[in-house]
Structure formats: C-alpha cells, structure tokens
Design a protein that fits this description.
By secondary structure, the chain is mainly alpha-helical. Helix content is 63%, strand content 6%. The chain has one domain. The protein has helices at 8-23, 29-58, 68-76, 81-93, 102-118, 141-144, 148-168, 176-184, and strands at 125-129, 132-137. Strands 1-2 form a two-stranded antiparallel ribbon.
Length: 189
C-alpha cells in the first residue's frame, strides 16, 4: 500500500490535465477533439476528487468534526457531484456555493458538457438519401464541436472552481493563491 499527502492525487491529475492542454498546441483535427474531450472529463473529475479529499481532510479537524459521519457516509454511498456541491459547503462550512456566480455557473456548464460526452447515448436517427435509408445514426455534436480552446477553458474552470470552494471554506482571499498551489500545483503569479 502506498501512502502520501492528500493533495498528491489532485496534483497528479492537474499535472496530467496541464500536460494534455499543452500538447494540444501541436494537435489538430480528430486528435485535438479527442484530447479536448479528455480534458473536459478530467477537469470535472479533478474538482470532484478535490471536493472528496478536501471535505475528508476538513472534517478531521476539531472545528468541523461534527460533520465527519455525514461526509464519510456520503463518500461511502457514492453521492453525486451535484449533491456534494449543493450540500457539503453549506453543511460543513456554513456557506453555500452561489449557483449564479460566474465561477460556479461555468463549472456546472462544464459538468453538463462532460455529461454529454461521458453519458453519450445514440440518438438513433435515420437519414434518407436518394434510394438509401441509413438508420441508427448518432448525434455526435458534443464531440465534434470541441476545440483546443475548450481544453484550456476546462483547466481554468477547474482551477477557478477549486478556488471558489477554498473561499467558501473560509480561506482568506489573500491566501487563495497559496492554497491553490498547495492543492493543485498551480504556481502563484
């Protein structure tokens, strides 16, 4: 069994996401769309992994210990990301995320894009051509519309959402950049 600091897996995921975003500078066409899709999926995954780890670490502190059983129970029951984002900040920190804020709104839009890619099902459409009927076609617009910009945006949205979660948890604004470095590996600028 390997043990490490709780932020290690978040750093590893962000390293992978940043490397993938950087590699898109030399990519185009199908590979660029494929990698952009992976970036979107990974960005949402990173936020959920962060939320799971950060909540688990936080409820081990005496100030938040009264919420430990709930968080552990929710983690064991594999509660959805939506559930955790909507419930945990209010319960643990006494302050809910504002779904109308640009940061939170952008993250939920990213999550919806991820869901369109990840939970893809065939629309099973039929196309009629002269003398031919093609059945069972799938609407792949969610993938086909992706660009390199979507990948870079996904990285930024994930970092911004983690910053927002840190703010809600009570981290002072003057320490957000240091906390982002601690949790995501992003070097303060």
């Amino acid at each position: 069994m390997h043990r490490s600091s709780p932020n290690r897996i978040i750093w590893q995921y962000f390293d992978a996401l940043r490397r993938l975003v950087d590699s898109l500078d030399h990519s185009e066409g199908e590979p660029a769309r494929q990698d952009s899709a992976l970036c979107i999926m990974l960005a949402v995954t990173i936020v959920e992994a962060f939320l799971n780890v950060y909540a688990r670490v936080t409820v081990s502190e005496p100030k938040f210990a009264q919420h430990e059983q709930r968080v552990l129970s929710d983690l064991t029951k594999w509660k959805s990301l939506d559930y955790k984002l909507r419930k945990w900040p209010k319960v643990i920190f006494g302050k809910a995320l504002d779904p109308t804020s640009p940061t939170v709104s952008a993250f939920f839009k990213l999550k919806d894009r991820r869901n369109a890619l990840m939970h893809f099902t065939s629309s099973h459409e039929t196309m009629q051509l002269t003398g031919i009927s093609i059945q069972g076609l799938a609407n792949t617009s969610a993938l086909d519309a992706l660009t390199q910009t979507d990948a870079a945006s996904a990285l930024k949205v994930a970092e911004d959402m983690i910053a927002e979660l840190l703010r809600v948890s009570g981290i002072p604004e003057c320490k957000i950049f240091q906390a982002l470095h601690l949790w995501t590996g992003r070097v303060p600028t």
